[in-house]
Amino acid sequence: MYDRKLFCLTFSMVCIHLLQAEVEETLKRIQNHKGVIGTMVVNAEGIPIRTTLDNSTTVQYAGLLHQLTMKAKSTVRDIDPQNDLTFLRIRSKKHEVMVAPDKEYLLIVIQNPTE
Amino acid sequence: MEIVYVYLKKRSEFGKQCNFSDRQAELSIDIPPNPELMEHFVVRDPVDRGIQCSYEMSEHEVNTERFEMETRGINHLEGGWPKDVNPLELEQTIRFRKKVEKDENYINAIMQLGYVMEHCIKQNNAINIYGEYFDEGDEYEVSDEPLSAKTINVFRDPNEIKRTATHLSWHPDANRKLAVAYSCLDFQRADVNMSFESYIWDLENPNKPELTLKPSSPLVTLEYNPKDSHILIGGCYNGQIACWDTRKSSLVADLSTIEFSHRDPVFGALWLQSKTGTECFSASTDGQVMWWDIRKINEPTEVLVMDISRKGILENALGAIALEFEPTMPTKFMVGTEQGIVISCNRKAKTAAEKIVCTFSGHHGPIYALQRNPFYPKNFLTVGDWTARIWSDDSRESCIMWTKYHMAYITDGAWSPQRPAVFFTTKMDGTVDIWDFSFKQCDPALSLKVCDEALFSLKVQDNGCFLACGSQLGTVTLLEVSSGLSTLQRNEKNIASSFFERETHREKILEAKHREMRLKEKAKLEGKEEDEEVKLNQEELLALAEEEFFDIINQEIRRKQAPLEKKKKQSYEEEELEEFIYKGDEDDEDEEEEEEEEKEEKEEKEEKEEKPKE
User: Fold this and answer.
1) Higher confidence at residue B307 or residue B212?
2) How far apart are CA B223 and CA B26, in angstroms?
3) Which of B112, B145, B173, B188 is 20 to 30 Å apart from A78, CA to CA?
4) Residue B589: predicted pLDDT
5) Residues B175, B192: contact at Cβ < 8 Å?
6) Could you tell me the CA-to-CA distances from B381 to A52, B157, B416 in Å, in that order?
7) Strand B149-155 to B476-481 pairing
8) Cα gap B76→B178, rounded to integer Å
9) Hey, are the CB atoms on B121 and A20 less than 8 Å from each other?
10) Using CA atoms, how far apart are residues B211 and B207, in angstroms rounded to an integer?
11) What is the Cα–Cα distance from B455 to B451, expressed in whole angstroms?
């Protein structure tokens, strides 16, 4: 029985490692797309988990976009309570900021659109 | 819910209980109308009463005191980290991050979000959703709103002793900066403690200049290099030329040697178009125009004396105040002088005498501004004494259009870079006039009082929307002009060009007539022999006139007779024929008189034909 537990534990750990590798791959793939300047993952408290940009920029984006996403989400839900925010795109003169919100995390990508 | 206060009253203190019951209606009092009372009143017809049901409101204006602002940065530390993690310690943060990455939620979330995100990224790369697919072309705005302009910002001279803002120059790229040259142009009345500094202002910050330029003598004029926005050239009050590089310090980068510089304040300095982008030229009231290369600024490369007798004598030279150079005509340039004459010069001519091509005179006082129309470079605007005048290269004797004489001296003027028919002028009573001759020719389209003191300089930004004007106390005001005056109107180019052509044509006709009159007078003075010859000519003309006259009459008769033969029955036409023939008899009698008239006309015509041929 002890062996089975150990087996299950190692199996789950391997699975997690594999999945983690997939996550890494996904993030790398996103970063390598044409025009992408930076990618970052931020948790619900605004702490950057993964980022390809420098710390100060990351912190700035994390804090500001978190608030904006919350606002956007509440706006959508106020208008129609059965609706929910799926994606947020901010197009500026220089580039486009895309935010994919989740219950706990935010995936933020800054891209230079082709023009 | 908390009970905050308890109100107590004894039941016995309530009093008797109210018992309500229904009852029939009872008549309490009945007052019948009394017609006798009507005799105290008079019927009023009509009754005029105003009725208004609204709030009473009043309007007040308040002008607050000037507020000094300063921009400062704030440093704040990262927050949001859980209490056990110190954000500054790298190890702890890394550990925290690793922990989160192992979380199953995290993994699922990222997979989901990654999928969505990739879709959008690919979308972006595939197509530009904001692309302009239907190009409308130039849209002409037909704005019915009244023309207006408003002050956006005011930049004051930070020094205590105020100096005049004598020249303004916009930054060539972003147009977010303005270089202002300050000096005191009153002869020998400059204060001893007056500062020599000139400033470069950032439009966003009117409290403090962005950069200070410290020359050895106050700057009268200052220009950005249109090719390299870091380089500026300034003309000093003592005649030297100074060159700055804003990337270096604010002390002078290069200064010309005083022996080879001008002897009077440098009033105009402009950059030339050259491959190296380092050539410029300057003009001063000492009568010289000098060309410089800023790489070797201690000596001018060329000097030209503004002597209109073309002998190069400095004593006869006219002092130059305004300088004009249009990059589309790189070999020509124009100089506006103190004596009110505009001299057009050609740089490429071989000898100094040939360099001065022609002169235009017409102003009574110094010409403070000179600029070619950016759309029709053959026409240029000059501003001086109490008028602004528009000239054409072709008509050398006089200007083609001019404003009326104003009450105040006009100090500076400029064309609008977006509209060919609009130009701006500033006056000594502190007003800015915006003229639009496609709209109104007698008066400015818009006249604004900017400040109480005199305005000395004016510069329009390239988009035609903003203009900066500098005053005698060093206050530079930034104005925004309404879109009606800065966007190209429908057909405006055609209207403006037809205006110019028509006026030029008119001037040419007047010139021709003047010339003719002068020649006639010469002819009269030259003696009798010429008179006799003229008489002989008259006899010939008489014969010619007779012949032609009869020819015309015969032709007319033939023309009238042809349809008449077809319609013989109509008596009206027969009468006409009789009348005509009858008239013909009369005409024979009046022949001589008519011949004389015709003879004179013929004379004039022939003379006119002869003269232009000459």
Assistant:
1) B212
2) 99
3) B112
4) 47
5) no
6) 58, 30, 11
7) antiparallel
8) 34
9) no
10) 12
11) 8
Residue type, B2: E
| Contacts for B457 with CB less than 8 Å, ≥ 6 apart | B165, B166, B167, B168, B411, B412, B426, B469, B470
Q: With cut-offs at 50, 70 and 90, classify the pLDDT of residue A39.
A: very high
Asked if B117 lies within 8 A of A109 by C-beta distance, the reply is yes
As given in the structure block, the two tokens for residue B389 are 């005048």
Q: In what order do the strands lie in the sheet with B177-183?
A: B164-170, B177-183, B198-202, B211-213
| CATH code of the domain containing A71 | 3.30.450.30
Distance CA B490, CA A50 (A): 56
Q: Which residue has the higher pLDDT, B541 or B602?
A: B541
Q: How far apart are CA B463 and CA B469, in angstroms?
A: 16
Asked if A60 reaches chain B (Cβ–Cβ under 8 Å), the answer is no
Range of the domain at A45: 2-111
Contacts of A29 in chain B (CB under 8 A): 114, 118
* Residue ranges making up the domain that contains B403: 149-506
Predicted confidence at residue A110, as pLDDT, reads 92
The answer to the question of residue B194 being in a domain is yes
B145 within 8 A of B481, measured Cβ to Cβ:
no
Tracing tokens 């201690």 back to the chain, one arrives at B298
Residue B117 identity (one-letter amino acid): M
CA distance B494 to B421: 10
**Distances, alpha carbon B342 to alpha carbons B382, B384, B501, in Å:** 9, 11, 21
Amino acid of residue B169: S
CA angle B343-B511-B529, nearest 5°? 120
What CATH number is attached to the domain comprising B156? Answer: 2.130.10.10
DSSP B296: B
DSSP-derived secondary structure for B215-262: -SS-EEEEEE-SS-TTEEEEEETTS-EEEEETTS-SB-SEE--TTTS-
Please name the member of B104, B110, B120 whose beta carbon is closest to the beta carbon of A26. B110
* Nearest-CB residue to A47 (from B81, B120, B124): B81
Q: For chain B, how are helix, strand and coil distributed in percent, rounded to 5?
A: 30, 25, 45
- Selecting from A20, A33, A98 the residue whose C-beta is nearest the C-beta of B107 gives A20
The identity of residue B311, as a single letter, is K
- Note the pLDDT tens digit of each residue in B452-496: 889 999 999 888 888 899 998 889 999 998 888 888 877 888 888
Angle between helices B104-126 and B90-102 (to 10 degrees): 90
Which amino acid makes up residue B141? Answer: E
pLDDT value, residue A48:
85
Please give the helix or strand (H or E) that residue A56 lies within, else none. Answer: helix A55-79
Q: ipTM of this predicted complex? A: 0.79
Domain count for chain B: 1
Nearest CA in chain A to B112: A102
- The structure tokens 């901010």 sit at A90
When divided into structural domains, chain A yields a total of 1
Interface membership of A46 toward B (CB under 8 Å): yes
B109 domain residue, yes or no: no
Residue B536 lies in a domain: no
Residues in chain A: 115
What number of other Cβ atoms are within 10 A of residue B288's Cβ?
23
A68-111: pLDDT as tens digits:
999 999 999 999 989 999 999 998 888 889 999 988 899 999 99
- Is B227 part of a structural domain of the chain? yes
* Dist CA B462 CA B318 (whole Å): 32
Q: What is the pLDDT of residues B528-570, one digit of tens each?
A: 555 555 555 778 888 888 888 888 888 888 888 877 666 665 6
pLDDT above 90: percentage of residues in chain B: 5
- Cβ atoms B542, B599 nearer than 8 A: yes
